[in-house]
Design goal:
The protein has twelve helices and 24 strands. Bound molecules: shikimate-3-phosphate and phosphoenolpyruvate. Shikimate-3-phosphate binds next to helix 5. This is 3-phosphoshikimate 1-carboxyvinyltransferase.
Length: 429
């Protein structure tokens, strides 16, 4: 599908979708236990992929009005009847590849073209180090993957700078192994707050993890069992980034965002980034509301070591801001649904924006007066689509984004929310 967006001003009160990261983990945690009710989950293409995997391992996930009713496989995943299709979701593939290592038999995992291009080698090596068998069918460290268990746990070393999802995967699976898993990081951990999200969620399910000198550890033989048998998912700060950015570049009146409660999400850094660029932002943490007004923005330097998913949003803000916006520590942002560093450089380039790309950085030379509407490509990547939809608000003339349907991966109804904010847009096949 295509969406055409005319330059618009925005205002009003909207609700952030529930967190994708917490929803994935809550569904799988409930699967590792006897089950749980996941209240207010994100119902999206990616989180449904995790739900399907839990079913493949012998659990069940029923969608109810208020949440997902999950029945678990009690720490003993069955050998799936069929290949597990993780679709577009890296989180699903990494987290449930470690689950496969617990099953007494062989599991095959695959995904769409984008997911089959993303790195899985370090996780396969870790499973082998723990005594399982794990291979890429093409021998290139990418899916399709074939994993044979069971593993009993033990010590493992893994790089920290490719994906934090490997650590999350091993911690979650390790809790139900016999011996637990001790993870030694070979290189500095990137996307570190996502491991904190994991640890926070595991604690809420009664599972203890520890930070060691060189990494993390989880004891084996633990039970996943949240109080009252339920878990409530907080709002998603990566999704909030587009709403805050829309307010910062185009609010005629204040934009108010509900569902912004404190949690371990590193992407809450967007609040400081937007205000650091000059937009007035207020965060009422007790109520979980944010309000933002527009201002003349200026460029900023920001590291995305901890917050890779914010790069497309910051790049779009940088295109509207005056002066240079330099986004550093971004190498791991190239391993996402697309290489988001070069995707943003190229697509903003079509809108008249000058950028400088380095292996681990992107500099956007912002000048709102030269930002022009154009035909751009969302690259089949939800975050590229949504970030370009931010830039479109401030462009001179209409912008048409190809692949608008991909927002379903993390923010279903994104363009409905955009319209509620007053954006002048049209979607078509
Ligand atoms: O664990 C998670 O929920 C995620 C971790 C991050 O990936 P990496 O750890 O691969 O950087 C992030 O980019 C992704 O959107 C979600
Ligand atoms: C990279 C992302 O997710 P995943 O790794 O789960 O595909 C994302 O949501 O931006």
């Amino acid at each position: 599908m295509y969406v055409t967006i005319a330059p618009s001003s925005v205002g009003g009160r909207v609700r952030a979708p529930p967190s994708k990261s917490y929803t994935h983990r809550a569904i799988l945690a409930a699967g590792y236990g006897e089950g749980a009710f996941v209240r207010d989950p994100l119902r999206s293409a990616d989180t449904r992929a995790t739900a399907r995997a839990v079913e493949a391992y012998g659990g069940s996930v029923a969608e109810r009005e208020e949440g997902f009713e999950v029945e678990g496989f009690s720490g003993e995943p069955a050998v799936p009847d069929d290949v597990i299709d993780c679709a577009n979701s890296g989180t699903t593939m990494r987290l449930v590849t470690a689950t496969a290592a617990l099953a007494d038999g062989t599991t095959v995992l695959t995904g769409d073209g984008s997911l089959r291009s993303r790195p899985q080698g370090p996780l396969l090596d870790a499973i082998e180090e723990l005594g399982g068998e794990a291979a890429s069918t093409r021998g290139n460290g990418r899916a399709p993957l074939v994993v044979t268990g069971p593993i009993a746990g033990g010590g493992v070393s893994i790089p920290g700078d490719v994906s934090s999802q490997y650590i999350t995967a091993l911690l979650m699976a390790g809790a139900v192994t016999e011996r637990g898993i001790e993870i030694d990081l070979e290189t500095e951990l990137k996307s570190a707050p996502y491991v904190e999200i994991t640890r926070e969620l595991l604690a809420a399910f009664g599972v203890e993890t520890t930070e060691t000198g060189g990494g993390f550890a989880v004891a084996g033989g633990q039970r996943y069992d949240p109080p009252e048998g339920e878990y409530s998912v907080p709002g998603d700060f990566s999704s909030i980034s587009y709403l805050l950015a829309a307010g910062a570049v185009a609010a005629a009146e204040t934009v108010e965002i509900e569902g912004a409660h404190e949690s371990a999400q590193g992407d809450r850094a967007i609040v400081d980034i937007v205000s650091g660029m000059g937009a007035p932002v207020e965060w009422n943490r007790a109520e979980g509301t944010l309000s933002v007004s527009a201002a003349d923005l200026s460029g900023i330097e920001v590291s995305v070591a901890d917050t890779p998913d914010l790069l497309p949003t910051i790049a779009a803000l940088g295109a509207v801001a005056d002066g240079e916006t330099r986004i550093t520590d971004a190498e791991h942002v190239r391993y996402k649904e697309t290489d988001r560093v070069s995707a943003m450089a190229a697509e903003l380039g079509k809108m008249g924006v000058e950028t400088t790309e380095e292996p681990d950085a992107l500099t956007v030379h912002g000048d709102r007066s030269t930002l022009e509407g154009a035909a751009v490509d969302g690259r089949g990547d939800h975050r590229i689509v949504m970030a370009l939809a931010v830039a479109a608000l401030a462009a001179d003339g209409e912008t048409t984004i190809a692949g608008s349907e991909h927002v379903d991966v993390s923010f279903p109804g994104f363009f409905g929310t955009w319209a509620d904010l007053g954006v002048d847009l049209e979607e078509r096949e």
